[in-house]
Design a protein that fits this description.
This protein has about 375 residues and is mostly helical. The chain has helices at about 1-20, 35-60, 65-70, 80-115, 115-125, 130-155, 165-180, 185-190, 210-235, 245-250, 255-260, 275-290, 300-320, 330-355; strands at about 355-360, 365-375, 380-384. The longest helix is centred in the first third of the chain and has 34 residues, at about 80-115.
């Protein structure tokens, strides 16, 4: 099924190359001509085939008895006592509360756009609330990972193995994105840009505006893969999570509905193939989660709400896009939702470290609970 998904996606890509004759990352107002609609249909079909294929693989790994024994859709933890069960219920409620908050935020932003499009645009301009908050959230993530790196350096030698390196990498990445967002505070400090930045499209001290389209699309698709695709693939066994360090850094399923809304904030970038891949794949992942959920404790209601707001948001932006003051206004809000979702991911990593545990997958491929990360022989981290 996944091979068929690849072939269908290749067909959509061929339409881009052979028929549309447009640059791969070309931006502009959404095109709803028959050829573009055909390509969108192919992308949606390929996304559905991919998600269905991954879900089918997961069903082969997990027998019904094993599902009932070990699978908690919000925590992936096995309850060993009534106290632990109560604590996990509390964590589940908190996770669902966070998703509800993101759903309400997304709904509020859409209503703001419909009611006050000029104010919506004004808040997204340079150095206004949305851009400044986006940068601060990235810098917050960077600071939290820097704190975690400091704690790792102070922990017993070898206790966390190689986890220091991905932690430092994420701290550096979030710092770079945050500083790029505010052009390294050039506009606040008012200094002139060096001559080396003369080719910058906005004449600012940043790197991403040398190739704005490539940088933006890479940024958006990278975080779609990290926040949405990776947790989904990890459950199926297609993404290796056996090593405790990888497991520590892998986003949990809870991050998927938390971070899903940003893939629906498209207008001028809707025609881009990667944008549609991220949107439709996220939709079908959430549909899969909703179908899996069997009762309110599984978060079925909030998952359905996240799915509904995701679809309605994109529909509103496409249907009423003529009301945008600037066609790219909506992407400024996309860049706010991404670091906000990353904050919850970062807090999850810090929680796993502070408790000395990480989610582990058993020999049969299922999540079997938590395990302490401790040094094995030779100083390498191992799961207990």
């Amino acid at each position: 099924m996944m091979l068929l998904a690849f072939l269908v996606m290749a067909g959509a890509f061929c339409i881009d190359l052979a028929l549309l004759r447009s640059p791969f990352l070309a931006e502009g107002r959404p095109n709803f001509s028959s050829i573009y609609l055909l390509r969108t249909l192919l992308v949606a079909l390929a996304s559905w085939l991919f998600v269905a294929g991954v879900a089918h693989r997961a069903q082969l790994l997990y027998t019904p008895a094993r599902w009932k024994e070990v699978w908690n859709r919000w925590g992936c933890l096995r309850w060993t006592s009534s106290e632990e069960r109560e604590r996990e219920y509390a964590r589940m409620s908190l996770r669902q509360l966070v998703v509800w908050a993101m759903v309400l935020l997304g709904s509020g932003l859409v209503l703001l756009f419909l009611a006050r499009p000029i104010f919506f645009s004004r808040m997204g301009r340079e150095d206004r609330l949305v851009e400044t908050l986006s940068a601060m959230l990235h810098l917050l993530n960077s600071g939290l990972f820097a704190l975690l790196a400091y704690q790792l350096l102070r922990s017993p030698k070898g206790r966390w193995g190689l986890s220091l390196w991905p932690v430092l990498a994420l701290a550096s990445l979030f710092f770079l994105i945050g500083m790029e967002e505010v052009s390294w505070f050039q506009r606040y400090l008012g200094f002139a840009i060096p001559e080396a930045f003369a080719a910058n499209k906005q004449k600012e001290l940043n790197l991403h505006n040398f190739h704005t389209g490539l940088a933006e699309n890479g940024y958006y698709f990278l975080f779609f893969v990290f926040l949405i695709a990776t947790p989904f693939l990890a459950e199926s066994g297609l993404f290796p999570t056996r090593h405790p360090v990888v497991n520590l850094m892998t986003p949990s399923r809870f991050i998927v509905p938390t971070g899903a809304l940003f893939v629906a904030y498209n207008y001028d970038m809707w025609n881009i193939l990667l944008t549609q891949v991220a949107f439709f794949t996220t939709i079908f992942i959430l549909v899969h989660y909703v179908r899996e959920a069997r009762d309110p404790e599984d978060g079925r209601t909030v998952l359905f709400a996240a799915l509904a707001v995701l679809v309605l948001s994109q529909g509103v932006f496409l249907a009423f896009g003529h009301r945008f003051v600037r066609v790219w206004d909506v992407t400024e809000y996309k860049e706010l939702l991404i670091p906000l979702a990353c904050v919850f991911y970062t807090l999850g990593v810090l929680h796993r470290f502070s408790t000395g545990t990480a989610l582990v997958r058993g020999a049969d491929g299922t999540f079997s609970g938590t395990a302490e990360i401790r040094p094995a022989r030779g100083g390498r981290a191992a799961a207990g």
